[in-house]
Amino acid sequence: MDFTGKVAIVTGAGGDMGRAIVKKFTDNGAKAVLMDIREEAARRSVALLGLDEEHGFVVTVDVASEDSVKAAVQKVMDKYGRIDCLVNLAGIEGPNNSRTEEYDFKMAKKVFEINVYGTFLMMQNVLPVMQAQKSGAIVNFGSVSGMFGYAGEIAYGASKAAVIHMTKNAANENGGNGVRVNAISPGWVNTEMFRRILEQYKETFENPLDNVTLGPMNRPGEPMEMANVVVFLCSDEASYVNGSNFLVDGGMTLG
Ligand SMILES: NC(=O)c1ccc[n+]([C@@H]2O[C@H](COP(=O)([O-])OP(=O)(O)OC[C@H]3O[C@@H](n4cnc5c(N)ncnc54)[C@H](O)[C@@H]3O)[C@@H](O)[C@H]2O)c1
User: Fold this and answer.
1) Element (H, E) at 57
2) What is the pLDDT of residues 66-93, one digit of tens each?
3) CB-hemisphere CA count at 13 Å for 62?
4) How many whole angstroms separate alpha carbon 47 and alpha carbon 22?
5) Staple 250 to which of 56, 60, 211, 217, CB 3.0 to 4.6 Å?
6) How is the chain split into domains, by residue range?
7) What CATH number is given for 7-246 in this structure?
8) Dihedral through CA 142, CA 147, CA 152, CA 155, nearest 10?
9) Catalytic residue status for 156
10) What letter would DSSP give residue 189?
């Protein structure tokens, strides 16, 4: 895979998985734009990866805000004048042990604002750039939660189902113009989010791992194991992959 001269935006780049994706892109020659609502976390990723200004450009964004997304995309265009890859990783888990009748409505809306409308707004503002270039690749973050009906996480599960579906809508509108749109649906991944969810499970389960299905590999995925797939989907090697939802769960959903 060769991303020399290419510009890749990663939202949520301040987290463990975001940092792994940025590393995979920059190891293969890309200039990475690290977007996050937590500017310090994005700067930490740049420092940990030892990136210079050209290969690790930090842009603060709230993906749920239209004005913030527009301003962030404009900053990328002002600096580089092109966008080749967009990874919509930013997302929140919301409550994970709350039955539908107890689920806080404000939190349900927040989960949708960030996971669904954040992905929508980023695609809406980046697609015209890629269409004008006649090339580009977008990878959105679904989840096994968006494919199955796990208990206790109605907003998160539904938000990820929406992300997977929006991916198909956008992929069908593009594809023939050189712009591909795909999703990745991870199982458990060893990140801050995973550790926060285990904390939530402690309220209900004596051993929180009792509520974590890992499947035949008996371990969560590592951030770089997601990054490998994400960056492949953005690469020219995936030139005929459009509208897919790539399941990367170590087999946890095999039953
Ligand atoms: N960790 C898992 O087990 C797992 C499994 C399946 C899917 N996912 C999905 O992968 C993605 C990344 O998850 P993670 O585990 O790295 O989470 P994380 O919480 O460790 O990192 C998420 C990052 O997104 C940023 N963010 C949150 N709200 C934002 C906003 N409004 N605007 C911009 N940035 C914002 C956070 O600051 C953080 O740096 C999410 O979409 C998540 O739903 C995670």
Assistant:
1) strand 56-60
2) 999 999 999 999 999 999 999 999 999 9
3) 7
4) 12
5) 217
6) 7-246
7) 3.40.50.720
8) 50
9) yes
10) B
